[in-house]
Amino acid sequence: MSLIQSLKLVMSRPHPAARPFLLASGAGALLGRALPFRATKLAGTACGLFFGFCLYFFRDPKRVVPADTHAVVAPADGHVVSVEKVAPPPELDMGTMPVWRIATFLSVLDVHVNRMPAACTVTRVAYHAGQFLNASLDKASELNERNALRLTLPDGRNMAVVQIAGLIARRILCDAEEGMKYEKGERFGLIRFGSRTDLYLPEGVEPLVEVGQTMTGGETVMARL
């Protein structure tokens, strides 16, 4: 990645979910620096640093979605921690036949905006309250707080995306509702401060990525339909 591309990524417009954090930390920074007390100035400096972190964490860069209609793109940035065949989440009523699941772990340094892997209709949204284990662990898929979406493709096949909260994350944001239609690469949610996103491919579709590979949400091709 060139220096100019890196700067564009860091300086991209923040996601709307950042607003309360930016307003609070920005106000704290201004107030702390304005008051003539050492303690408040230190607090103001801390708020200023947090303001800068939020600008970076909630960045929402534009992505170039592949024109290939058969491509399934990464629903999140991060690196692949697992590629294995497992049964889809039971709350999505997609049967018990094992399909390929690609798990992507997002550190606090990754872009946390989630994107649709393919053109689809959301036919099920199922939230599950749970624990906050390290999202890179395999058991996080079953034990952690999660929000699962069943996506029905134009040809009738189903796939799924699951947003999973991590060790630090405490809030999953999802704008998708049942019946909504999305184009490939469209934004549908975000997970705050470290997380994991699992992609369940349709039956018979093989993954094109491996463990350790770095994903760019909305751009990296994970499979072909």
CATH topology of the largest domain: Glucose Permease (Domain IIA)
Instruction: Name the CATH superfamily assignment of the largest domain.
Output: Glucose Permease (Domain IIA)
Low-confidence stretches: none
Helicity, as a percent range: 10-25%
The averaged pLDDT comes out at 84
Q: What's the shape?
A: elongated
Family: Belongs to the phosphatidylserine decarboxylase family. PSD-A subfamily.
EC number: 4.1.1.65
Catalytic activity: a 1,2-diacyl-sn-glycero-3-phospho-L-serine + H(+) = a 1,2-diacyl-sn-glycero-3-phosphoethanolamine + CO2
Main location: membrane
Question: Briefly, what is this?
Answer:
The chain is of the alpha+beta class and 225 residues long. It has 4 helices and 13 strands. The strands form 3 sheets. It has an 8-stranded antiparallel beta sheet, with no helix packed on it. Strands 4-10-8 form a 3-stranded antiparallel beta sheet, with no helix packed on it. It has a two-stranded antiparallel sheet with strand order 1-13.
